[in-house]
Amino acid sequence: MKQSSQFTNLPFEIITNILSRLPVLVIVRLKCVCKAWLAIFESPEFSKLHLARSSAGLLVYQHLGASCLLKMFGFEDEPEVERHENNYTPVKVFDLSEFRCQTIAGSVDGFLCLRVVGHIHNLYILNPITREYITLPTLESRPLQSSDIVTYGFGVSSSGCQYKVVRIFHESELDQAGVCVRIPRSECHVYTLGTTGTWRSISIAPSPPLYYDSHSIGALLNGNLHWLARDLKDSYLISCLDLDAEVFRTLSAPPLLGWCLGSLVALGDRLTICDNTSENDIVIWIMKDYGVGKSWTKEFVISKLPNLDGECYDLVLPIKVFRNGDILMVWADFYMFYYSKRNKTISKIDIIELACCGSVEAILHVPALVSLTCFEREMINSY
Length: 383
Hints:
Blueprint: H1 2-8, H2 12-19, H3 24-30, H4 35-41, H5 44-53, E1 57-64, E2 67-75, E3 88-95, E4 103-108, E5 111-116, E6 122-127, E7 132-135, E8 149-156, E9 163-170, E10 173-174, E11 180-182, E12 186-192, E13 200-202, E14 211-212, E15 219-221, E16 224-230, E17 236-242, E18 247-252, E19 262-267, E20 270-275, E21 281-287, E22 296-303, E23 316-321, E24 327-331, E25 335-340, E26 345-349, E27 359-365, E28 381-382
Antiparallel strand pairs: 1-2, 1-27, 2-3, 4-5, 5-6, 6-7, 7-28, 8-9, 9-12, 10-11, 12-13, 14-16, 15-16, 16-17, 17-18, 19-20, 20-21, 21-22, 23-24, 24-25, 25-26
Domain F-box: 4-49
Protein name: F-box/kelch-repeat protein-like
Organism: Dorcoceras hygrometricum
């Protein structure tokens, strides 16, 4: 009791400083200690301070029949850690089966964007820690056709004031080989959380007609969302949307083949493209200077031999480059694997019993206490 009294007698700023360094799930339990601490933890100022000091962990979205499980892991990223394939600590499991979601459309500041893929796309914004969610209004005026392409992005503006979901849609005409030869209609809609509660249409011009991959997710960097896309001449470009100005522009892509298995992500503070077209190697390109096309560098050439020999025709998604140069990646939605820069080897990792899993997605995610009630005008639900 005496030690507790000494702690509570500390200045408010010092108490807040100490508590803001605790793991998020510890804070969730400490909310029950006393009303004074509960008031601290539920204040917007504390939530923002805690978010700024939190580190990203690994979030794995696992589909098992009708069940959808969200599994959170922590990990260390120190140069002296020799191998990272077993360096994951289970933190929490969330059951999201009621959302019937099939894919993650983005993770920003503790918020997740989930979507249900089908003739009508349903979108949710949720915070798994606070167990709150928002259901976004649908946009479809008619069922989607097989040739329609829809891709999404979820991000925050460079000012940090506005969180936006972006939906890019286009009709496509394909030839007998399945190659896009014409884009009759292309449009983009933006939903700003906490404002009007409606989607707004914005112009995709002055970009030329681009063919987006429906499996791609907008990569957030520097307040911009980025998608790897092709023009009708099969040349690759990066479509970039400034979330503040809501203006599109294009960035140069590295010299990719006319048809490639490329995925675009933001690793740290750099745009990264992972090319899995070759049967022998996985090639990872890094844009060293943001926006400078000539700065694309072939940073990693990872041999698939012997572990992944012949496994091709699927996207490979880099999740994280560790400080010692090791890389965590996901092969399509089948499994995760790990590349050791030191040993030049690839190892499959099974931290979530993937053998009994229908599909899996993985993404870096910062667990946060920020409530969705910060978005005024939104209908907040709990699960």
